[in-house]
Amino acid sequence: MDLLDISINIIFPAALIIFVMGFFYQVIQYFVIPGPPRPHAPGRDVPLTKKVLMPFIKWIGTFKFIMKVNPLHGFMAIFIMHIPILIIIFLFPPHQAVIFNYFPFLEPILTPFAIPQSITEAFIAQKTIWGPLEIIVNADLLTLLIIFSSTAVFALRIVKHYSGEFKSTIGDYFALIVVIALVTFGYLAVHTHGTPLYQTYLALHILTASFLIAYIPFSKFLHFVWSYWINLLVLVYHRVRRGA
Amino acid sequence: MAKMGLEYEEKIKRAFIKAIDRSRLSYFKYCMRAGSCAYACHFWLVDPRHELVPGIKGKRVEDVFKKEFTILGKLKKRITGEPLITIEELKKWVELAYGYCSLCDRCMLACPYSVEFPPLTLYMRVVLHEAGLTPESVKKQVENEFTIDHPYGITKEDWLKIIDEIQSKFDEEIPVDKKGAKYLLIPGKRSLKDNIESFISTIEILLKANEDFTLSSDLWSGCMSTYDIGAWDEMAQLTRKRTQIIRNLEAKTIIMTNDACGYYGWRWLADKAIKERLGFGVIEISELLADYVKRKVIKLDKSKNDFVATYHDPCHLARKGGIVDEPRVAITASVKEHREMPHHGIYSICCTAGCLQVDEYQDTRVKAFKVKLDEILATKANVVITNCDECFYTFKRMFDEYNVKDIEIKSITEVFADAIS
User: What is the torsional sign of CA B367, B368, B371, B372?
Assistant: First the structure.
């Protein structure tokens, strides 16, 4: 059994098990902590539908605010990092194959949105639903954007650290290093396909991904899996309270 | 590094257990230290230092939390023999929680993950209160609440005299201790001391509208700043006592006038503090004013307020209390021109008081007021209107500090009463 076999058949499934267990641990911990969340108020005559939708609308306000006050960091983090990451995870066919293996019901939903691998592929034949957009929405370009933006966010954190404005912790840098390593190994694996290096890069990609998946429930990576959504639900709860 | 005694550690642990809730826990887990919160903080904007970033203030709380409530943290504490917290760190907390935070909640709006940072500063305040390290000027307010029922030292005798004085200004009788009235009017905690006009104008409006209201000889402050000080047990005691007075009067609804913190506390926190339903409604005066405008109960003449006005949204009313549109309805109906500040409504910038005057840290607050002042100057308004006397008082002090002579500050009830034709 070589490194690639071990990564695919042992480490990756183990990481998924740790993820699921860790996720439930966090969910249970959230609900066993006593005390209601802090109140936050809606207007008295706001209709219920608006109250429920308000936290989601609030995010648009937050987004606008970030783009106004901290545009470089905001643009990098939201547009060039998070959105491409989500596209690559769910719409890149090799990743889709792994996801469908565990969640077959997602196949008919996600398959039509699959993205091509390279820009060349996009130029030659626009086969997907994305049409001419394939020139932008393709795995190669998005991967490079993720590497660029993660590095830029890393650099911005260093600049802010030395300017004394804002100091990140080792954990914050580590999270970005894991993302950069994961994406870089994936890119190299795709581009060394058919060469002896392919298996090594793919194994490293799967190992890093496994580490990340197992690390998510115990780190701040959980923000996109749990916290953002649960905080929204907490805000909805606040909004529908009547108060005195 | 001065270590604290075990007794202190126990107190601090108790405070942590008292203050912990899900939203605070969510911070410990999900703050990505993106730094967006910093750009929403008026203290950081004028003094962009790492330790003043709201998320980083929270990190200090997290560090202590981990030492006591996580397995790895406990293990580390045992191996290294580190204290739970040092005296120096607690003193730093006093500075950060009172000198560089007004609990305005604006940072929370800027967080892409909706992490609630202000509760962490409140967390600090709860710990400081438990440890007896709250600044003296703030401690005095809590003491006053217990000894004379008013944070700023207005005694019952003073209150009764004030009622007599106000009565002498009107022909109609001002009802006092009337049972079963529709509304019980509670003065703002700062009104009786520093802005009596705002209270008088409220009474004038209610009389003009033939409203069924009363004053209480036993209740002349609905102050809820004990919550923001972290004195939660005291807050529960005071709320229970005041609730009983209101219930005895059988008032259907209480009106909080020019007291943002009081309104927020009574509407959103009081039932939680006493762990039962209040049994009466809570409204803010601008809600009533907006209703009068909509129902045309009172005729208003805009030309009587011939100036350009801008409205300052008190944080406890707009961001925390949900009162955004009502004051605007009342103001547009009563002044010649109303202009909005660049950031208004729930995005409004705090006046730096946060419903609490902390004498020990006036310098940091004066510095931070620059952000608000720029907002006001951008409107080119002659009058700033607000419906919180704590904001009113802060504006007055700050205008003196910044030598602003050509802008006046008025309360919403004053402007409304002036426009009555």
Answer: negative
Q: Are residues B157 and B277 in the same domain?
A: yes
Asked whether residue B1 is domain-assigned, the answer is: no
Q: Smallest Cα–Cα separation from B97: which of B72, B126, B68, B75?
A: B126
CATH of the domain at B407: 3.40.50
Pick the closest to residue B114 from A17, A218, A38 (CA basis): A38
Q: DSSP assignment, residue B71? A: H
Chain A interface includes B34 (CB < 8 A): yes
| Residue B184, SS3 per DSSP | strand
The answer to the question of residue B202 being in a domain is yes
Nearest C-alpha in B relative to A162: B50
Buried/exposed A169-187: b ≥16 CB within 10 Å, e otherwise:
eeebeebbebbbbbbbbbb
Closest CA to B388 of B262, B227, B210: B262
The distance of Cα B181 from the centroid of its chain, to the nearest Å, equals 27
Produce one character per residue of B129-142: b if its CB has 16 or more CB atoms within 10 Å, e if not: bbbebbbeebeebb
B-facing residues of A in 139-158 (CB < 8 A) are: none
Taking a C-beta distance cutoff of 8 angstroms, is the pair B85, B56 a contact? Answer: no
State which amino acid sits at residue A193: H
For residue B6, name the pLDDT band (cuts at 50, 70, 90). Answer: low
Of B20, B50, B113, the CB nearest to A33: B20
Tell if the CB–CB gap between B21 and A36 is shorter than 8 Å. Answer: yes
The set of long-range contacts for B119-122, using a CB threshold of 8 Å and a minimum separation of 24, is B119/A38, B119/B19, B119/B21, B119/B23, B119/B24, B119/B27, B120/B24, B120/B27, B120/B54, B120/B57, B120/B58, B120/B61, B121/B54, B121/B57, B121/B58, B121/B96, B121/B97, B122/B19, B122/B228, B122/B230
Q: What would the pLDDT profile of B342-380 be if each residue is shown by its tens digit? A: 999 888 999 999 888 899 999 999 999 999 999 999 999
Place of tokens 């699921």: A20
Type of residue at A243: G
Reading the block at residue B119, the tokens are 């509760």
Domain that residue B166 falls in:
146-289
Q: Quick one: CA torsion of B101, B103, B109, B114, rounded to 10 degrees?
A: 100
Task: Give the domain-ending residue among B68, B103, B133.
Answer: B133
From A98, A123, A128, select the one nearest A213 (Cα to Cα): A98
By CB atoms closer than 10 A (0-12, 13-18, 19+), residue A102 is exposed
**Do residues B275 and B157 share a domain?**
yes
Nearest chain B residue to A55, by CA? B114
**Residue keyed to tokens 């509208």:** B209
Q: What's the rounded Cα separation, in Å, for the pair B331 and B383?
A: 12
pLDDT digits over B46-71, tens only?
Answer: 999 989 998 888 888 888 888 877 77
Residue B376's identity, in one-letter code, is I
**Is residue B138 one of the residues assigned to a domain?**
no
Lowest mean pLDDT among A150-154, B20-24, B67-71, B264-268: B20-24
Q: At what angle do helices B118-130 and B54-69 cross, to 10 degrees?
A: 50
Q: Which of B22, B29, B53 sits opposite A37 (nearest CB)?
A: B22
On chain B, the residues whose CB falls within 8 A of the CB of A77 are 34
Biggest CA-to-CA distance, chain A = 70
pTM of the model: 0.86
